[in-house]
Each structure stands twice: as structure tokens, then as C-alpha cells.
Amino acid sequence: MSPYFSYKNGLLYAEEVNLVDVATQAHTPCYVYSRHALIHNWQAFAEAFKTVPHRICYAVKANANLAILNLLAAQGAGFDIVSSGELERVLAAGGRADKIIFSGVAKQSAEILRAIEVGVGCFNVESVSELERIHTLAAREQKRVNIAIRINPNIDARTHPYIATGLSNNKFGIDRYDVVALYKKIQATMPYCQLTGIACHIGSQLTELGPFVETIECMLAVIAELKRAGITLKQIDMGGGLGVRYRDETPPAIAEYGRLLCEKLKESGLEIIIEPGRSLVADTGILLTRVEYLKQTRAKNFAIVDAGMNDLLRPALYEAWHPILPVVQHSDRPGVLYDVVGPVCESADFLGKNRLLALAEGDLIAIAGVGAYGACMSSNYNARPRAAEIMVDREKMYVIRERETVQDLFAWEKVLLC
Ligand code: LLP
Asked: Which of 146, 82, 112 lies closest to 277, judged by CA?
């Protein structure tokens, strides 16, 4: 957890605001972010890459709230997007189109056209068909677009299989052994595609540098082959993927990761692009939730809270482990092992299992490390309005997303006129 969340006299704070006050004003469940934690992480990346030409393109999918995008845009961030929805969010938040990388395997024609219209910085292309479609549309619009090919290096990121993307049996990227021929074809036959770079992203939550090293070596080998074929590039995009510590993982520090990339890529003279998501925002947010009921069965103790898998899907989907902390520490109460579960009617609806906590009904707890892939993956399952989102900035708190109302949920639905 970021040091911007800390206990003072047994009470958990986000910066200078205590989370009991947040719950009183914003109700629960709600996401609470720390502005300074975000800026701190941004600066760690900026510092780590300062000696080389680089661009940090925040992966919007990790947390697409406008306030977060706006704060990062103000720091000079670029953005990695995967849909026109994310594109419009970045623009609405004040991000610059020419600093946007458009990734994703299924870009639709309307999305490509909109990206051409606003002038995104680069399309990271994932298939031959997509490339042909982009070229046709760019030709129709009479605009040259920047292209990088995302290679699939067939490298094991050694992470959860659902978030590994660099193996040949994943849908992502173009086989490393097919890309050189493709670059030649683009150069010879696609005048509206300007070849500017090469890209990759082998997976998320990488906790060792080894797979990054292997990927860099693979990318440099491709770049050398391209050079021999007379094709020179401007940028190398290493994707995102740097892991964070949720429990006992020991991922490399941002500085260490930066050092590796700078050392290995400096000589190439290429601009380094990275697309961090999780490592920029994960530790900047907690999910604040209240214990509704304590339920003891013959097999288990359940703490039933007012946040569920619709608010935070990661435990259900990946069996992800997030720290669960009491907002008020009670050293006088005995700890009990609880499964912390939500209100959703699924047995996958848990936020943590076998957690030693000293709880009473009505207590507040904080689920930590949820700034990334938390709110953005939430849903309305069981007709549950999505939670409010709050940003704390020293002693002030701002609502950066209002809690949905139940009426919002069916506002677009219609009944048959019969
Ligand atoms: N670039 C591309 C092309 C990506 O597909 C991703 C993440 C990133 C960058 C950012 O990766 P990061 O730095 O966050 O590892 N929902 C999952 C994570 C899915 C990641 C998908 N792609 C989770 O909750 O763990």
C-alpha cells in the first residue's frame, strides 16, 4: 500500500483525510484515491527514464476516471488506449491526441476513422487484416498514419494465464517470424502507413525482469533484421506489465525496471515508449466498504460487506489477493479468521478468504491496491449501482464519480408497448 494511506492513532487515513469521514460523507462502498500517490508514481517513472528519449503512455484501461486521466495529462503523460471510448475519455480529460497509442486486436472502422480524424500518435497493429483496413481508411481520408507492429515474441511472462499476452497461443500481436516480411510489404505497398515503430506487451503483473530481458533481446533482433532490409524505425514500445506488491510478491522497483530498459535500449537510439497501467495506479486507491453482517456457520466465519464482486472483480476472476485492513484498529478485540464476502448471489463473490480481522457489524474496512483494474472493471450485476469514486488531495476530498442511482441503471431500457 502506498505510504499516502496510513494509520494515525489507530485510524486509517488517505493523505490528511480519515476514512471514517469519507464514509460518512460519501457512503459505502466507494473507491478512494490519493492524488499525491499518483503524482509520486508518475514521478518515479519520469525519473527512471529521464536520461533517454522516452514517452510514458498510461494504459487507460487500468483506471479511466477523467480526474486520473486529467492529472496524468497535466504531468505530460501520453496514453495507451484500446477503444474509441477510451479515446474520447482521454480527449475529454485534456489529453493530447498526438500522444496517444491506439492498441487492441479488434479496432472497428468507425474507431479507426475517429482516431485518424483526431490525429492519434500511432496505431499499434495486431494483424494483417487490421493493417489493411487501417491503410484503406487512411487512403480514403488522404492522411498518413503512424504504424507500429506489435510483435508476439512467444515469451512466457510467468504471470496469471488470463493476463499473459506474449505467447504464440494468445490472440495478441503478430508472430515474431512474420513481422519482417510484413514491414517490407508495408513499405513497398502501403503509402498511407508510415512505419514508425515496433511494439510488444507480453503480459501484466510481471514480478521479475527476466521476461522483459528476453523480450528486449527479441525486439532488438527484429530491429537488426529490419535495418539490414533498409527499414529504420523511430520508436520501440515495450508495453506495460510491471507488477506491484499485493501480498508477498517482490516485483522490481520502477527505478530498476527503468534502468534495465534504458541500459539495453540506449544504443538503439530509438525513443522508448512504455505503457504502464497497474504500476502507476494500483497502490493509489482503496475500496472502502462496511461490514453489514457477521455470520458464523459450522464451517466458516463470514464478514458480509456492502461491496461485492461487481465492485471489485479481481478476486473472483483471478483469485487475486488484496490486503484487507480495518479502518479503525481495535487492539482490544480478538482476531478471527473471516471470509470477506459481498452481497452478490455467487459463491465467487468474495473479496478475501481466511483473513484475520477483529470485526464488529458496522465496521469499515479498506481493500487496498485497487487503484488499477478496480472501478474500471465494476459492473451492475444484481442491479447494483456502481460505487462512488473519491479523490483525496491533502485535507480535501473530491467526488470524482458520483454513485450511480438505481434509476440510472434502467434509464435506457424500454418495456414493450402492449
Ligand atoms: N499495454 C497493453 C497493450 C495492454 O494490453 C496492457 C494491459 C497494458 C499496456 C497495461 O499493463 P499493466 O502495466 O497494467 O500491466 N484486468 C487485469 C489486467 C489486464 C491487463 C490487460 N492489458 C487485472 O486485473 O489484473
From this structure: 82
Atom of ligand 1 nearest to the CA of 313: 24
User: 50 and 196: one domain?
Assistant: yes
Residue 123 binned pLDDT confidence (cut-offs 50, 70, 90):
very high
Q: Are 340 and 23 in contact (CB under 8 A)?
A: no
Torsion of CA 94, 97, 99, 100, to 10 degrees: 100
- Following DSSP, what letter does each residue of 331-395 receive, concatenated? TTSPPEEEEEE-SSSSTT-EEEEEEEE---TT-EEEEES-TTTTGGG---GGGPPPPEEEEEETT
Among 57, 79, 200, 201, residue to substitute to test ligand 1 (most atoms within 8 Å of Cβ): 201
What distance in Å separates the CA atoms of residue 135 and residue 158, rounded to the nearest whole number? 35
CA angle in degrees (0–180, nearest 5) for 107-109-114: 90
- The CA distance from 261 to 212, in Å, is 8
CA distances (Å), 218 to each of 57, 223, 224, in order? 22, 9, 10
Going from the Cα of 293 to the center of ligand 1, the distance in angstroms, rounded, reads: 35
Is residue 80 one of the residues assigned to a domain?
yes
Look at residues 279, 305, 334 and tell me which one is the last residue of a structural domain: 279
Cβ contact 195:187 at 8 Å: yes
Give distance in angstroms: CA of 206 to centre of ligand 1: 10
Across residues 369-393, what is the average pLDDT? 98
Q: Per-residue pLDDT for 1 more than 90?
A: no
* CATH number of the domain bearing residue 250: 3.20.20.10
CB of 62 within 6 A of ligand 1: the answer is yes
**345 given a catalytic annotation:** yes
Total number of domains in the chain: 2
CB of 80 sitting under 6 A from ligand 1: yes
Domain that holds residue 400: 5-33+282-409
Give 30-67 pLDDT, tens digit per residue. Answer: 999 999 999 999 999 999 999 999 999 999 999 999 99
